């Protein structure tokens, strides 16, 4: 556990420290498109946050390769090299989209190429556990189809919810935490070494999200862009694929003593890929609803709109921060509730307790007078509106100020940012004729 925690903290620290310089680079590079009709932010905001996240990924894996136990994974498993190859392709595709814009079909093709590269290097579903039958082997072609489909679905599900400040990063972090608990239990509790890569990928993913979120909470100073959201979706998919079809139920039966107990222990993976899909149930549902909604209206399923779940929360009267927190708690309730089915005894009580706290959080957020504030110990790392005191209230008032023409006023920028904008012009001028990003 100590090695995983070290990797997590290194990844978070590197991502956090790189995000500031990356933000300056994004402004200079012009990766700061104008506000579109479907956007909820009020002023041009730099993208390319995925560059910092990719730096955190590389730093975390570099540290892991030098540790005693995790270093063996780089020798025993090809999954880590496959992850770096696929994440690199997805990250590069996202950087191009954040700066110049990439056609939706071209982007889909790039996602399939990244998934195909990982499959070619061995990250693929080999078998599917079926209750009462055991592992059912799949053909290489079928395994490739399942793996590529999972990657594409995960990538686009995360990309679809990247519409509010801190939403995608927080929900992926929650999903990674739930998956870390599940995969760590298989690896440490039952000695299943094939689950170790999934534990490492989950730890790195948590670190990437935690390091980026302080810069991305509302009001966001930088967006992760497609370079970040697509990479996060790919990593979730790789963690799922690396464990699904590689866990032999007989290994757990030898320890539990009965097939019935084994079935209970492996509930989340007895239905193919159930756990990784449930931990992103909300973005996945949003993706499916968007495809149905746009197709029914005679539009392309890749056409952007302002009818996602988080947009609807804003429409019914929730503030930006409250809408994000509601989505956080719903994601945690579903994710940890699913993990609880595979945890016996006191462990189940603990996980169910976490799910109960999430449900309580949803109830509290429905109270109109409740205003979310960060604990004092972390207030130095979060935006002013999450802090307590008069200064925070003043910051909120400035943020919500409206000009006489009825349009929202710009948030206050730092002196360095103002100097850059004076030299470069607005984000729209810097970007030029960048085409609208497809959702």
Q: Notable features of this structure?
A:
mainly alpha, 2% strand, disordered C terminus, two-stranded antiparallel ribbon
Describe this structure in words.
A hairpin with a 3-residue loop joins strand 1 and strand 2 (134-137). A two-stranded antiparallel sheet has the order 1-2. The longest helix is centred in the N-terminal third of the chain and has 28 residues, at 2-29. It has 439 residues and is mainly α. The chain starts with a helix and ends in an 8-residue tail after the last helix. 46% of the residues are buried. The protein has helices at residues 2-29, 49-65, 73-76, 79-99, 104-120, 140-160, 167-190, 196-216, 225-243, 249-256, 259-265, 267-270, 274-278, 281-296, 309-315, 320-340, 345-365, 390-399, 415-424, 427-431, and strands spanning 127-130, 134-137. The chain is built from 20 helices and two strands. Helix 2 (49-65) packs parallel to helix 9 and helix 10 (249-256) packs across helix 11.
């Amino acid at each position: 556990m100590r090695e995983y925690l070290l990797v997590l903290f290194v990844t978070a620290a590197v991502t956090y420290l790189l995000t500031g310089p990356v933000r300056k680079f994004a402004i200079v590079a012009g990766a700061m498109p104008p506000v579109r009709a479907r956007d909820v932010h009020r002023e041009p905001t730099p993208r390319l946050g995925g560059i910092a996240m990719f730096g955190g990924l590389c730093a975390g894996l570099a540290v892991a390769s030098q540790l005693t136990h995790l270093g063996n994974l780089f020798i025993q498993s090809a999954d880590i090299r496959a992850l770096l190859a696929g994440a690199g392709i997805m990250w590069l595709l996202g950087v191009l989209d954040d700066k110049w814009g990439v056609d939706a079909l071209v982007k889909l093709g790039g996602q399939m190429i990244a998934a195909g590269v990982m499959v070619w290097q061995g990250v693929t579903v080999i078998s599917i556990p079926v209750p009462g039958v055991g592992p059912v082997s799949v053909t290489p072609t079928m395994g490739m189809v399942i793996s590529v489909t999972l990657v594409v679905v995960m990538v686009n599900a995360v990309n679809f919810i990247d519409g509010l400040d801190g939403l995608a990063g927080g929900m992926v972090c929650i999903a990674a935490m739930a998956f870390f608990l599940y995969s760590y239990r298989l690896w440490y509790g039952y000695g299943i070494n094939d689950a170790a890569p999934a534990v490492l990928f989950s730890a790195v993913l948590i670190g990437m999200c935690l390091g980026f979120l302080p810069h991305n909470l509302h009001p966001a100073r930088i967006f992760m862009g497609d370079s970040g959201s697509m990479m996060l979706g790919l990593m979730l998919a790789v963690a799922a694929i690396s464990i699904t079809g590689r866990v032999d139920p007989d290994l757990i039966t030898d320890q539990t003593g009965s097939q019935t107990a084994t079935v209970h222990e492996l509930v989340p993976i007895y239905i193919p890929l159930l756990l990784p899909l449930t931990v992103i149930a909300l973005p996945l549902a949003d993706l499916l609803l968007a495809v149905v909604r746009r197709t029914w209206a005679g539009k392309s399923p890749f056409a952007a709109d302002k009818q996602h779940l988080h947009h609807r929360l804003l429409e019914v009267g929730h503030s930006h921060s409250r809408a994000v927190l509601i989505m956080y708690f719903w994601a945690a309730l579903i994710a940890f509730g699913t993990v609880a089915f595979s945890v016996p005894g006191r462990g189940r009580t603990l996980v169910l307790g976490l799910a109960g706290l999430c449900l309580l959080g949803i109830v509290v957020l429905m109270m109109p007078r409740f205003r979310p504030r960060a604990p004092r110990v972390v207030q130095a790392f979060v935006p002013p509106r999450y802090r307590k005191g008069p200064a925070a209230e003043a910051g909120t008032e400035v943020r919500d100020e409206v000009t006489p023409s009825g349009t929202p006023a710009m948030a206050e920028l730092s002196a360095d940012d103002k100097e850059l904008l004076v030299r470069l012009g607005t984000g729209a001028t810097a970007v030029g004729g960048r085409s609208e990003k497809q959702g």
